[in-house]
Amino acid sequence: QVQLVESGGGLVQVGGSLRLSCAASGRTFSSYVMGWFRQAPGKEREFVAVISRSGGSRTFADSVKGRFSISRDNAENTVYLQMNSLKPEDTAVYYCAAKSEVYSRGLGYYTSPGGMDYWGKGTLVTVSS
């Protein structure tokens, strides 16, 4: 089992940047596919980005392509979400998620919340205009 703790959220103006971090417990971080999801008030949780166990593959939601990037440091048990050119519609609670895998699947499998097993408590990002 893994525990996930997000940090780095806050208030930012339109066009600004933030970097979210997610620290994971345990010694098998490299066996987890890691992802970021978000949930705006009154809306369902939606996929943002996912990264493979090695960090060599990434997939993004269309709404954030070209603005957000995801990376991981397996030595530090941490995954990051760099968010640039932020828009008011990016305002949401951002959740880190993990799925333990022993074999490879296409990253599309992990773009649904049901594809993940472990969740952090979230960090709030507010983009003001």
Structure notes:
With 129 residues, the protein is mainly beta. It has no helices and eleven strands. It has strands at 4-7, 10-13, 18-24, 32-39, 46-51, 58-60, 68-73, 78-83, 92-100, 118-119, 123-128. The strands form two sheets. Strands 2, 4, 5, 6, 9, 10 and 11 form a seven-stranded mixed sheet that branches. The chain is globular, with a radius of gyration of 14 Å.
Beta-strand percent range: over 45%
Dominant shape: globular
Order of helices and strands: EEEEEEEEEEE
Number of strands: 11
Could you tell me the mean pLDDT?
95
Structural class: mainly beta
What would you say about this model in short?
It contains no helices and 11 strands.
Task: Give the arrangement of secondary structure elements.
Layout: E1 4-7, E2 10-13, E3 18-24, E4 32-39, E5 46-51, E6 58-60, E7 68-73, E8 78-83, E9 92-100, E10 118-119, E11 123-128
Parallel strand pairs: 2-11
Antiparallel strand pairs: 1-3, 3-8, 4-5, 4-9, 5-6, 7-8, 9-10, 9-11
